[in-house]
Design a protein that fits this description.
The complex is a heterodimer of chains A (589) and B (420). Chain A is mostly helical and 589 residues long. Helix content of chain A is 62%, strand content 3%. Chain B starts with a helix and ends with a helix. The chains are: A mainly alpha (589), B mainly alpha (420). Chains A and B meet through α1, α7, α8 and α9 of A and α1, α2 and α13 of B. The complex binds protoporphyrin IX containing FE and copper (II) ion.
Chain lengths: 589, 420
């Protein structure tokens, strides 16, 4: 026994590989048992598959963009193949459609549901110690709304494409003859999917906490999810009505946004960004939550500044509602308004910075294991810091006049969305993968993917900061030859990034075939999900979990003999459990 | 394994996913109405209630977008809003307000009944609430079809012609709106007869109140028709042209779109234009015309090509936008108004009022329809006697929803109908 010397009166409690007769993957079979499941874990897994497919589709479009931009006059959409595929479309039109669908798919279908809906669904009840979310049916219907929204997007893609940019700005979106209505209907439906998920989580966290799970014993991932849900519930309806009015504008010409009928396009921008700025925090907040878990668990050290991190999530959620104007500095607001929005924008960066400092402080003197999730988490800190700081350049009025609508903005938001959210998402998937499928992945493969993603990502987007500050406008299909070297670097980077992502996918899928069986607690985490088996049983816990401190690692030791983490706990008398009414029958068998 | 069946089952308390077929519902102390993942009925009720409140928050925010649009456009064109508001029949609006208020009352009473297990009374209350909802829709059908007939439509389709306010012919919109309701009513009537003949007691119990509810739609239509035409009768002589609406001599009630013929209308145009011109708001849209004068002066310098381009662009833009709320900066708007025989009924302007009117009341009506859907579901369940003192959540939640729909109308009514 090498879990250190065990003091007298203490015992080693090895969660090991307890095997319940059934886990959530095997307790019922057949495609219908998945299609009509109300189990949050299965819904989470279905989301995971869904968002990954959306990510693949969006990624292919992104590769298209980058390949086209390899040469100043474009090389992809004007080559013979595309001419033959779409003879009636000019190469530049194809380019417009490709970047629009890339953006729209990535934002609405992938990044917004990625962490909250996929990982969140799996994790929220388990981390909370609950049996399920509060409204399992609503949960399933959000998933199907997501599928419906995705179908609308695919229809838009197959009908006549979409070329408005993901922002659907009027008046172009009311005049173009691409499939704006299909796409906005899709986004509208996806909005409801997102609202229902958020609503479900708020209620779950409020009413389903088991005894002992106080607000400040909640893992930070739950705080992050909670604040995300607040934004989802409060901001998304405004997007809904905006898109509805846009559809009405196109069909009935209601003259609210369309200057042709006395409408005001800037009103559209206000409405749109009132949702879409908070939406960028829907994308990043849950990623913050993941990073808090990853950093703490893999440094085996209590998270530094728990309350600060928790409150800063809420602060970000609230502040995010009052900064939308920074997207419209150049659209003719009054100077005083721009100054106010600029000042407010700076305030948002304060809670974001608080988090970064806390993560770094957590790592300080921790015993860091450089596992794949941890490497992703560290990459996140680097990349998000760059993304966040460049946000300040953009929030500054004078510099934004120059940088607005250039590649600088593109680089900024890719640093926060890809370098931030996607990297955190990948880290989270690697971290919880053993819990989700019960198999360990190949650590070497995981590290390789992290390295490739980090290198590829920086090579893709660092040059874009330079391009932008030199005046390369965004959304252009062609450019001045002087920009060519930087664009080419970017394209090479995108290819490396793509390879990195495929390696990650490959490593995860391979683990299903030849992965080692995962122990209940492969990383030595202290949150509740590591108490239940990998994968968890249908109602998550064989017996009601004992809620403790989520960041107390003192009693979790590595046992070199057993080759896994064990818990060193005060000895206690074991009384035979009377089966509580709610636990599945097999708990008592 | 019963999993797939359980997943498909519509029974609200079933939980799928158990591999153990022996794990039925009877083997522990969960009452049938308590879902498995909840520990206590209180927890279930609190969750539902919080969920409903959050949903209502999203509803309010959803409408808030339109209230914002309303505020923006009304601030820009107060005279248009006041003028066009004359076309809304205050009597009908007031009746609908009363009907909805009453339905909120019966709904609240219904919740009380559910808590006190007064099953019969609950059914009566729900049926009354439903009937009010259909009366509301019936009245709305009259309002809408009448306006469509006159061409009082959203901006792009607006075709109201003051010189010929009552175009002859045209599609019978009322019939279109009523058709689905007629079909449903006939369906329910057949259902009633069939279930009577077959002696299906439960179905008969459901069909009876539902038929009343359906018929109430036609009560609403009738009520609307009487008041609508009554309002018009009174106006046949005093032909007020709405264009004069802003000078205070406006007609006091409802349908002022009257039967002014071309000549009379022309007489009214001048005062109208003056009235409009005298409104500060009419010129407020273009307060940077001073800037423009400077620009123009600077642009006379042949070397200032950039400025000239900008000026040309601005002019082109203001030409393209027909009314120029925002871009009409190339000339003094009050001059425009004074020189052109303008009125608030210019399609591009009046249309926006009607756009907002249709968006807001239309989406509100959709919410009423959704409310009818869930109320019918409640009605059936209450006839089945599903609710008891420990389990009345659904009635309570639907009640909350119904109140919010009602509240939104309470705001819509003055903002739309009572602003002149
Ligand atoms: C840390 C604080 C942040 C600040 C101060 C900030 C500031 C800004 C500003 C001022 C712009 C407008 C630039 C322009 O169009 O001229 C912008 C654009 C953008 N930001 Fe950020 N940002 C921050 C964080 C984030 C995060 C966390 C995300 C997403 C996860 C994000 C996503 C975006 C996106 C998508 C756009 C571009 C939208 C478009 O025009 O298509 N930002 N940001
Ligand atoms: Cu923003």
């Amino acid at each position: 026994m090498s879990a250190g010397s065990v003091p007298s009166g203490y015992e080693v409690n090895d969660p090991g590989y307890p095997t319940p007769q059934e886990n959530y993957l095997t307790n019922s079979k057949g495609i219908l048992s998945w299609a009509f499941t109300l189990d949050h874990k299965r819904i989470g897994m279905m989301y995971l598959i869904g968002v990954t497919s959306a990510f693949l589709l969006g990624g292919l479009l992104a590769l298209g963009i980058r390949l086209h931009l390899f040469a100043p006059d474009g090389i992809l959409f004007n080559n013979a193949l595309f001419q033959w595929l779409a003879p009636d479309k000019a190469p530049n039109d194809i380019y417009n459609q490709v970047f629009t669908l890339h953006g729209a798919i990535m934002v609405f279908l992938f990044i917004i549901p990625s962490v909250p809906a996929a990982l969140g669904n799996f994790l929220v009840p388990v981390m909370l110690g609950a049996k399920d979310v509060a409204f399992p049916r609503l949960n399933l219907s959000s998933f199907y709304l997501w599928v419906g929204g995705a179908l609308f997007f695919v229809m838009a893609l197959l009908a006549s494409g979409l070329d408005t940019g993901w922002t659907f700005y009027t008046p172009y979106s009311t005049t173009t003859d691409s499939s704006v209505i299909l796409a906005t209907t899709g986004a509208f439906v996806l909005g409801f999917s997102s609202i229902f998920t958020g609503l479900n989580f708020i209620v779950t966290i409020n009413t389903m906490r088991p005894p002992g799970m106080t607000w400040f014993r909640m893992p930070l991932f739950l705080w992050a999810t909670y604040s995300t849900s607040i934004i989802q519930v409060l901001a998304t309806p405004v997007l809904g009505i905006t898109l509805l009015l846009l559809i009405a504008e196109r069909t009935l010409h209601i003259g609210i946004f369309d200057p042709e009928y006395n409408g005001d396009p800037v009103t559209f921008q206000h409405f749109f960004w009132f949702y879409s700025h908070p939406a960028v925090y829907i994308m990043i907040l849950p990623a913050f939550g993941i990073i808090s878990e990853l950093i703490s668990v893999h440094s085996h050290k209590r998270i530094f500044g728990y309350r600060f991190i928790a409150y800063s999530s809420i602060a970000i959620a609230l502040l995010s509602f009052i900064v939308w104007g920074h997207h419209m500095f150049t659209s003719g607001m009054s100077p005083i308004t721009t100054i106010i929005f600029s000042a407010l924008t700076f305030t948002v960066s304060v809670p974001s910075a608080i988090k970064v400092f806390n993560w770094v402080a957590t790592m300080f003197k921790g015993s860091i294991s450089l596992t794949t999730p941890m490497v992703y988490a560290i990459a996140f800190i680097f990349l998000f810091t760059i993304g966040g700081l460049t946000g300040l350049h953009l929030g500054t009025l004078a510099t934004d006049m120059h940088l607005h609508d250039t590649y600088f903005v593109v680089a900024h938001f890719h640093y926060v969305m890809v370098g931030g959210t996607v990297v955190a998402f990948l880290g989270g998937v690697f971290h919880w993968w053993p819990k989700m499928v019960g198999k360990m992945y190949s650590e070497a493969g995981g590290l390789l993917s992290a390295a490739l993603v980090f290198i590829g990502f920086n090579l893709t987007f660092l040059p874009q900061f330079i391009l932008g500050s030199r005046g390369m406008p965004r959304r252009y299909a062609t450019y001045d030859p002087e920009f060519a070297p930087l664009h080419q670097m970017s394209t090479y980077g995108a290819l490396i990034l793509g390879v990195g992502l495929f390696v990650a996918l490959f490593v995860l899928l391979m683990s299903l075939y030849n992965g080692k069986k995962a122990p209940a607690n492969p990383w030595g985490g202290a949150t509740l999900e590591w108490n239940c088996t990998s994968p968890p049983p249908f109602y998550n816990f064989e017996r009601p979990p004992v809620v403790g401190d989520p960041y107390e690692f003192g009693d979790i030791r590595w046992d070199t003999e057993l080759d896994r983490y064990v818990k060193v706990e005060p000895q206690r008398e074991r009384v035979p459990l009377e089966t509580p009414a709610e636990t599945p029958a097999h708990a008592s068998e | 394994m019963a999993t797939t069946d359980a997943g498909l089952a519509s029974d609200a308390h079933e939980q799928p996913g158990h591999g153990h077929s022996d794990h039925g519902h009877g083997d522990h102390d969960h009452p049938s109405y308590l879902a498995h993942h909840f520990d206590t009925p209180e927890q279930q009720f609190d969750s539902g209630k919080l969920g409903m409140w959050l949903f209502l928050v999203t509803e309010v925010l959803f409408f808030s977008g339109m209230f914002c649009a309303y505020a923006i456009f009304r601030a820009w064109r107060p005279e248009v809003f006041e003028g066009c508001s004359q076309f809304l029949n205050t009597k009908l609006g007031a009746i609908n307000t009363g009907v909805l208020l009453f339905s909120s009352f019966t709904m609240a009473w219904g919740v009380r009944c559910a808590q006190k297990e007064q099953h019969k009374l609950l059914t009566v209350m729900l049926a009354t609430t439903l009937s009010c909802a259909t009366v509301f829709l019936g009245v709305k059908a009259i309002e809408y079809s009448h306006k469509w007939h006159l061409g009082l439509l959203p901006a792009g389709l607006f075709s109201y012609d003051p010189s010929n306010p009552h175009p002859v012919g045209g599609p019978n919109y009322l019939a279109y709106i009523c058709a689905p309701f007629v079909a449903i009513t006939i369906g329910v009537a057949i259902w009633l007869v069939v279930s009577f003949l077959r002696g299906a007691k439960f179905q008969l119990e459901c069909a009876k109140p539902l038929l009343v509810v359906c018929l109430c739609f036609f009560v609403g239509v009738g009520l609307g028709t009487i008041l609508e035409s009554g309002g018009e009768e009174g106006h046949h002589e005093d032909d007020h042209a709405v264009v004069a609406s802003t000078d205070g001599a406006a007609p006091e009630h409802g349908e002022a779109h009257s039967h002014a013929d071309g000549d009379e209308h022309a007489e009214h145009e001048e005062p109208a234009a003056e009235a409009v011109a005298s409104l500060p708001a009419a010129g407020a849209m273009s307060n940077d015309s001073a800037d423009l004068a400077v620009l123009e002066r600077l642009a006379t310098d042949a070397t200032n090509t950039g400025l000239q381009d900008e000026l040309a662009a601005r002019k082109a833009q203001s030409e393209r936008s027909s009314g120029g709320i925002l871009y009409d900066v190339s000339d003094d708007a009050s001059a425009t108004v004074a020189s052109a025989p303008e009125n608030v009924l210019r399609p591009s302007r009046a249309g926006v009022f009607f756009s907002i009117y249709y968006c807001m009341t239309g989406i509100h009506a959709i919410h009423i329809l959704a409310g009818i859907g869930v109320l019918v579901w409640l009605l059936v369940r209450s006839i089945r006697m599903d609710f008891n003192r420990n389990y009345f959540g659904p009635v309570d939640y639907v009640g909350l929803y119904w109140h919010i729909v009602d509240m939104i109308w309470i705001y819509l009514f003055p903002l739309m109908y009572l602003i002149r």
